[in-house]
Amino acid sequence: MKTTINQVSNYVNQEVTIGVWLANKRSSGKIAFLQLRDGTGFIQGVVVKADVDEEIFKKAKSLTQETSLYITGVIVEDTRSPFGYEMQVKNLEIIHEAKDYPITPKAHGTEFLMDHRHLWLRSKKQHAIMKVRNQIIQATYQFFQQEGFVKVDPPILTGSAPEGTTELFHTKYFDEEAYLSQSGQLYMEASAMALGKVFSFGPTFRAEKSKTRRHLIEFWMIEPEMAFTTHEESLQTQEKYVQFIVQSVLNQCELELTTLERDINKLKAIQAPFPRITYDEAIDLLKEKGFTDITWGEDFGSPHETAIAEHFDMPVFITHYPKAIKAFYMKPDPDRDDVVLCADLIAPEGYGEIIGGSARIDDLELMEKRYEEHHLTGDAYEWYLELRKYGSVPHAGFGLGLERTVAWICGVDHVRETIPFPRLLNRLYP
């Protein structure tokens, strides 16, 4: 019976064949322990000299790292293993012998591993991170579908900057100027006016020359947009969504979290509602914590966000930022024109902002004023203005950065490990 490692629990005390790679091995005179992987998981294969032909045992002892093979044996329960099962090997057939595999079990530097990212992905920790990432993606689709959202795919090539910034990748679109999208939000607003509640899930690009552990040049965003929705209702959706994906990973990725040595008690504590703090209150809190130089009107950096998150030890919303440091489309607080109805969700444990969201301006006259203030003239933004001309409604939305969320849930230090092939300031290979 041919099967995969993640299905072996269905074949206890039965003989099966699995296509695998050799991740590692150790052996004594009479037993060889093979650490095997097949993409679905990892399992130990035990080859006992007395139980197999001499040629099979000789092959087992001479196997090199990352050699591919078909391995046949009986699946047995193993309470010592986190996986719970192992294979008593009866036969093996080498498919391709790997020689001089560059990533050995010894320690390697980050740059070396990044140069060999195409191979580093095979390691147990990287495998676990990718499985958690996949689970978050699956849970995202499940959550928004059951909440009545429609998946919409905004364009990647755009004729304007959604955030009104210059940190864009420029390209030619035949005889026109074009940019790689830094957000699908404006298109999602248009989609919400047609479909009510929508979400996108796609790549975004930021030409920001940053080398921090929280930044990538190319990353993936989940961007929901909701018609007939207030800022408060949007916040409730955000915390419900984050709680849902954390719970989904806890339920489905126990083995991966164990591999990553993640403190799952910290994840189990993630329960809505999340604490909230206004920007004004955050300024006061930071000054109490020793950030005496910060002044009202400054945006928060990583140390500020970390200090605020540590104070609550939970995801925390920072709301009502100054209008001057936020995007042109954010709706002002009706009681206070110098701040907007927005929020950033800061993850605990120093992982920074994972969500940014706001109520959107729905008043035509106010949006025209914003256009003037931000010099958004010409045809590029006319279609966005028309959303306020033809049946405008209160609406709100947000964007969650997938890689930062994966980093937080996995407990890894740098976002470069949370995407299969990261694009960094000085890295376009492999």
From TrEMBL:
Protein known as: Asparagine--tRNA ligase
Catalytic reactions on record: tRNA(Asn) + L-asparagine + ATP = L-asparaginyl-tRNA(Asn) + AMP + diphosphate + H(+)
Family: Belongs to the class-II aminoacyl-tRNA synthetase family.
Pfam families, A to Z: tRNA-synt_2, tRNA_anti-codon
Record domain Aminoacyl-transfer RNA synthetases class-II family profile: where: 130-430
Enzyme class: ligase
Subunit structure: Homodimer.
SUPFAM superfamilies reported for this sequence: Class II aaRS and biotin synthetases (SSF55681), Nucleic acid-binding proteins (SSF50249)
Organism: Gracilibacillus marinus
Main localisation: cytoplasm
Alphabetized NCBIfam families for the sequence: asnS, PRK03932.1, PRK05159.1
InterPro entries membership: Aa-tRNA-synt_II, aa-tRNA-synth_II, aa-tRNA-synth_II/BPL/LPL, Asn-tRNA-ligase, Asp/Asn-tRNA-synth_IIb, NA-bd_OB-fold, NA-bd_OB_tRNA
PROSITE patterns (UniProt xref): AA_TRNA_LIGASE_II
Matching PANTHER family: ASPARAGINE--TRNA LIGASE, MITOCHONDRIAL-RELATED, ASPARTYL/LYSYL-TRNA SYNTHETASE
Listed GO MF terms: asparagine-tRNA ligase activity
EC number: 6.1.1.22
Localization per record: Cytoplasm
